[in-house]
Design a protein that fits this description.
By secondary structure, this protein is an alpha+beta fold. It contains 10 helices and 6 strands; from the N terminus they run H-H-H-H-E-E-E-E-H-H-H-H-E-E-H-H. Strand 5 and strand 6 form a beta hairpin.
Amino acid sequence: MPRNRSFRENTAHVPANPPRPAEAGPTMTEPQARFLRSLLDERQIDEQAREQMLARIDADDVSKSRASDWIKRLLDKPKVGRTKSRGQDLPDVPAGRYAVTGDDGETDFYKVDRPTKGSWAGSTFVKLITGPDERNMSDTVARTILERIIADGPANAAIRYGREIKHCSVCNIQLTNNLSRALGIGPVCGGRFYDDDAEWKAIKKDAAEDLEARGIDPKGSNDDVEIKPNDCPNCGPGECYHICPNSPHYYTPEQERYDDAMDDGSDDVRERYAGEVITEDQS
């Protein structure tokens, strides 16, 4: 008879931590994932369990049936009260939006929330910005991101966000003013990152002088958009682009379609476009 192999021999091929099989059935829906993240943020639950559930949600490794079960169980949990532990004792970074380089070398975008009112006052929360969604990060991940922002310099990470997204990292208003776009942040909001007001004023002055040296008005907007004047019944030849209250308009694809429509000459097209004013939003 063959010799019985030992337990060690029988299990030698089994990894110490075998991978968990994937969930059976269809995966959870995006609304389920968003609701689960919000519940994990507001319900009292063991921190280790929270981390494990978030990891599976982020990996899209939760079936629809399991997601429904988790939602039911979390809804039965009490809400986090004032004696909360999340968002405490984290690195000090001003509230705002930041761009930093992730572990994969790609640029990641984060929002830092620091409530000043309500039950979460005094806490710090970090959210990963992915398109229209904002995904809450655990305290462990938040600490890593905040330390990365500090290493880059909060002002630099905020300006990087503004130059990448074209919105102010503090107020989230679109950057269209020439000086704001050169700075990568709103001229007022940028001062929040400098203890010395004179330093920020000097930075703004240098940026404005650089624009002027290139023939760009710091107070103007959208100067990198081609301006194409045209004849206007109200303004005269070559003064503006459309029928307008005497102001030039920026040349856009929509205005090209306007030209084509007017050149078409048909009465219905002319009537549809008559008196239309198309401008770029300026803020």
